[in-house]
Batch of 2 targets.
Target 1
Amino acid sequence: MLVVFAVAGASLVGRLAWWQVVRGSALAAEAHRQTTIRTESPSRRGTIFDRSGTVVLATSVDRYRIVGSPHQLTLADRQATAQGLVNLLGLAEADAVDLVTKMTSDRGYVVLARGVDEAVATRIRDMIARRELQAISLEPEPQRVYPLAEHRERPSPPTCWVSSIAMGKASTASRTIFRRSWPASPVSSSPSATPTATRSPTRSRSNRRASRAPTCD
């Protein structure tokens, strides 16, 4: 009888040593994985105005991501929840297949959709309250928007780089528009006699504009 108790005690000690010593670290890691979920909460960025304080240059809008915990449901409930989300979000083909695959898995945390606006988020909350969607929750995910971004995308007008030589030629051409012409008769010594300026007949107004404003390619 004593031998029986000795063998039973030795087997129990050996089994305990197997779980605590040999498999101890692996079991601890598995327990940590099953009881821990890591989530990220992005910080809220402020609104940026122009120097007048009235025009919004950059701001953040409320968006949400849909997350699920499929391991809490049966396979039938997972499929029903996935189909409800597909219909609500209006997904088709590859997107619908991807959401159904994620929701019918056995994972404890899975991201099903991103960038959901407030209107759709409100409908999801109502369906969760009516228990039409199970093991589903919404997490805030602010999105940065730039209202005046379309103005930056417009092409800017070409910039003219005019060298000093070209500017010298243009100024010289503009100076030749007017030339001094003196009377054909001899110049009188009277102090009231003054030279007159006449417009050169060889230059038109379009030519003068061309000489004043060099063109850009």
Note: Strands lie at 48-49, 56-61, 64-68, 110-116, 136-140, 143-145, 178-181, 196-199.
Target 2
Amino acid sequence: MSTALKIGVIIGYIAIISFIATYLGKGTKTFKDFAIGGSKIPWYIMGGTLFSTFCGGATMVAYVGNFYSQGLIWKIETSIYPFVQLCTKLLSDNPLFFLINSYTTGLAPSVLTYMLSTEVASTHGGTVKSDELGLPVTRTGLVLPCGASGRWESGK
């Protein structure tokens, strides 16, 4: 898929959503109109919406709990490299950057440098920079490590 086609799809999607929002939002004058349809929505539609919203979040939490209890854990240390390999297949022909943020101390910046160098820079050139993420502790003046960040840039 060409870059122009991708941009066209995105612009078309935004245009359609904007048209729908403008068309359907003409009668919205107050927050009550926006939040609950000016009290004109039947109770079963409102109830269904609330139920679906609740089940969506509850279901996701339940799935995570089930995966964890069965030992099906996505460990970033072992799963990130195949994930990066899959993500590189989504890049355009001339990508500008590829960014990885890891909010775990179990993944070193040097590992991010290696992955980005072998999977992105080897194909597209450019430069790779990685560093540790940290939170400054004002009382001690030290930095509390909380993860790593790696960035590949095309240089274009």
Note: The chain has a mean pLDDT of 84.
